[in-house]
Fold:
Amino acid sequence: MTDPSDQTPSTEGAHRPLRSYGRIKSRTIKPAQGALLDTLLPRIAIPDPELGPINPQALMPHAAEVWLEIGFGGGEHLAGQAAKRPDVLFLGAEPFLNGAASALRHLSERNLANVRLLVGDARLLINALPKASLSQVFILFPDPWPKARHHKRRLVQDDVVQELARAMRPGGRLRFATDWADYADWALERFLRSEAFDWTAHCADDWRRAPDDHVTTRYQEKKLGDIAPVYLDLVRR
Ligand SMILES: C[S@@+](CC[C@H](N)C(=O)[O-])C[C@H]1O[C@@H](n2cnc3c(N)ncnc32)[C@H](O)[C@@H]1O
Structure:
């Protein structure tokens, strides 16, 4: 029997990738965050990647580098990293509206001027970015889709790895973190078989210990996975 959750939702057109995320809106958004969606988001929104190529230089002309966080959730990590590197342009993509609203609160409270947001699918953004434009990518605690029949919904797929490799500069870094054992294996296998990435780890502590610059989020603290977090730091060849 077909599982209804396996059927492609009607929002997925022929050119859209299979949905890799859950809800796009849940509880009511608090008035203050709703106001930020109306006022701050239009000022820092990344143009719709389905309408054409995105030029990061046009978003922050003197940025030293461009970093991307895929699925920034509530935005704590994105804001924390952006505060440490005001010279870097941070792109964040997240389809969950409540997450984007929460991120806007963090950006506003910390007065951060170097972040641009897409409330939508990061894969469309990656495809619209110029070759070799990204110096750092974060994929942190992505939706695990633990059931085998849902693995095709996982964000890390061979075609996404190829597009990331295209959009990243040689020597650029990618951090993948998860607390699901099977997703750690799955992701490492796909990054390494692409032959576009090297894994920097030399000993177990290199993937077991949180990197010095890591910012823990409320989602991570829920510890929903089946192992302690694993941090895979990869380098674009
Ligand atoms: C489990 S949450 C983790 C959030 C955050 N990274 C953290 O560690 O707190 C995964 C997030 O990835 C988002 N996501 C899933 N697929 C995505 C995609 N294709 N593009 C952007 N975000 C995506 C989901 O909406 C969800 O908010």
The chain has nine helices and seven strands. The beta strands are 65-70, 88-93, 115-118, 134-140, 168-178, 197-199, 230-236.
